[in-house]
Amino acid sequence: MHIAPHPRDHVPPREMADKLVQSYMQTFGSIYRVLHIPKSLEEYELYWSNPETSSQAHVVAKLLLVMAIGTVFQPRQEAFVLRSSALQWIYVAQTWITTPFDKCRLTIEVIQLQCLLIFARLVHDVDGDLLRLSAASLLQTAMQIGLHIDAEINDFPNISPQEIQLRRNLWAMVLEIVVQMSVDSGGIPLIRASDYDFKSPVNMDDMVFKNNMDEFVSFIQRPDSLLTRLQIAAFVNDFRYYSTTLLAQSRCRGTYFQKKRGAAMGLGAAGSSVGGVVLPIALNELLHTSVGFGWAVRIIGFIVLALLLPASMFIKSRLPPRKSSLFMPSAFKQPEYAILIAVCFFATLAMYPLLFYFPSSGIANGMRTKLAFYLACHTNASLIAVTALFGFFSGVIISGTSISLASVPKDPRNIGTYMGMGFGITAFSTLIVPPVSGEMVSRYDSFTQVSIFSGVSCLVGAALIIRRRCMLDMGSFRLGEAFWCDAERVQCLNDTSKVF
């Protein structure tokens, strides 16, 4: 027994339905190939042949969603009048999809319904903030019935060419929705290119479909563009690519300067820290307005894009391209490089717990939430004006890591490899910090242990950097091997100290 009205109870008169369906077919239907047009029109005519006895509720639900989308393409005044009906059709279709009636959930028809429902909610701005969750459900359902596995490549039995094309079109629409929701929400895409096996849908109208697969013309533009957009969305929305950006900056600056390379990179790092102050504050302020998360992230992205475009347009490589190795084992035979890697590891291990838990500690001690947010920004600002002790040292660590790594190789062309290996090893410390720090805070219900852990790591890094400084025997502190104490070296150390 049904616990809700049948979807056919909400279908408008035939004349209105024909108009809205035609609007959909001429617009959305020709671009987003969710439905197989000839089959859908046959089902539509079959429904109207006897609407009262039609038992195919999924056909009626699709009709309601198609009409809801079609209303936005009517003249403005008429579209405004039809909006209330469109919203009702959306809610009826959504109720039918989600309620546990006697129907199979894992079918092509249900995937089509979910796609149409997301499009209808998108064009009518219904629960826009929750569309990403609906896209996740759609993706999981599509993968559960195997749409991400190409039927032709994997020799699925008893599947006609039309069904293969329908599956490909439908999977392409699922990916379109996933990419769109990722861009709108500012989140990482829910799937990677390596997670599916997918051939291009054929570039052929549904009306002229033939059974011979050999006559199909390969459709190129949409899949290629789709894969590129999927990768762009993953890159832009993944905060972990920040280290890649730092690496690119350091490599570009490093190859342009043979002398004073450290000073040049230090100035560049200082400029980056200005962004580390301004951008988080701007994002935080935008998040507390009616702009919303999606547009807040986009606005910050536009600001960064405006800053990057001039450099990207006018910069050119000073050095000719060459083949370089991704890994140079010989670099680790240099004592100063090996010690520097250890220094960077422990310095990062010391810095990140405080960056993570400064705001939490402030809130725990009665500080307002919004004010606690600015603690992290203050730490970056200190690279320019020394306003806090931790900020001073964290600024040195953030900017000094890339500068130090770039100063080791004698050949500037190896800077990228040296820095890549260094950041790759240092990255493990960022994976260690969150679980270890979180466990200490949870177990002891205090931030003291995290502070001790950070302090000890910092001391270890400091001891190692002093050792490296002694090995390099450069600059004002000409300690040389005097650090390793025999009688002659102690005398050398005393002589050096007299100079100062």
Automatic annotation (TrEMBL):
MF terms in GO: DNA-binding transcription activator activity, RNA polymerase II-specific; RNA polymerase II cis-regulatory region sequence-specific DNA binding; zinc ion binding
GO biological process: DNA-templated transcription
Chain ranges passing through the membrane: 263-283, 295-316, 337-359, 371-403, 415-434, 446-466
Pfam family, one: Fungal_trans
Superkingdom of origin: Eukaryota
InterPro entries reported for this sequence: Fungal_TF_Env_Response (IPR051430), MFS_trans_sf (IPR036259), XnlR_reg_dom (IPR007219)
UniProt-listed Gene3D superfamilies: MFS general substrate transporter like domains
Protein known as: Monocarboxylate permease, putative
Organism: Talaromyces marneffei (strain ATCC 18224 / CBS 334.59 / QM 7333)
